[in-house]
Amino acid sequence: MPPVENGSQRPALVTAACLGAAVLALFGALSSYQTSRTYAEQYPDAYGAARGEVRFAPVAAQIPANGVLGYITDLEGSQSAFAPAFLAAQYVLAPRQLLVVNAENKPEWALGNFSKPMDFAAAGAALGYEVARDAGNGVILFHRKVS
Q1: C-alpha to C-alpha distance for 36 and 29, rounded to whole angstroms
Q2: Quick one: how far is CA 114 from the chain centroid?
Q3: Of 103, 101, 102, nearest to 112 (Cα)?
Q4: 139 with 63: CB under 8 angstroms?
Q5: What would you measure as the largest C-alpha separation in the chain, in angstroms?
Q6: β-strand partners of 109
Q7: Is residue 6 very low, low, confident or very high in pLDDT (cuts 50, 70, 90)?
Q8: pLDDT digits (tens, 9 = 90+) for 46-93
Q9: 131 near 104, Cβ under 8 Å?
């Protein structure tokens, strides 16, 4: 094997490459932080979690932490507002399990999360529930009707 010429320069080149990569990583991290900070300033509560904590507090106080709640809403699953509304409710009510009410899922208690005023009792009755508590602001606690 022939001797390596300029062998003493190799450690200096490796060190320079590592320092260059570290500087680029630092600039990338700072850029990412700035982008996240700007987004957070423009959209402080994009999913409505802070509003949800206030809206769902009366329901959360009545359902045990290991409880299962159905979810009833006036929003269709295909609407863009459905997912953020459901996820905000799920986040605020955690660790309680939140299930969309359908033929297979009919827990004893259900959360009504409505985007507009309507006949909440009729909405619950259509799914086999009755109003247990109207917490205001479109939040209803339903109880499954006994057959």
Answers
A1: 11
A2: 17
A3: 101
A4: no
A5: 91
A6: 69, 143
A7: low
A8: 777 888 899 999 999 999 999 999 999 999 989 988 998 999 999 999
A9: no
